[in-house]
Amino acid sequence: MKIEHVALYCRDLEKTREFFQEFFGAKAGALYRNKIGFSSYFLTFDDGARLEIMHFDDLAPDTGSGRRCGFIHLALSTGSRENVDSLTGKLRSAGYQVASGPRVTGDGYYESQIIGIEGLVLELTV
Fold it and tell me: Which has the closest alpha carbon to 51: 101, 126, 117?
């Protein structure tokens, strides 16, 4: 079994698409839009993993609570420590907050944690 895709809601669909294309090399499929205010893109990464980014015209506001049930961050493997360092620097230079790292965590991961587009927490790993 494999996970077919993961999905997330966003307020600005186009900026979110551009973010994943620019920094992570994602390829976007065609825009899907329906009659009830829903729109989405499927983003495909080099290894075949897919992320669906979705938008509803009437999304409820985020409560801002970092501790909640459900998915908390998106971990992306960059392939090497050098790539973690490089991408962390690129995102920092683009104005995104580096919440931690790059560092070796207590459980042995080499990672950095970025607050990306629309507050999405991204964990960059080897």
Answer: 117
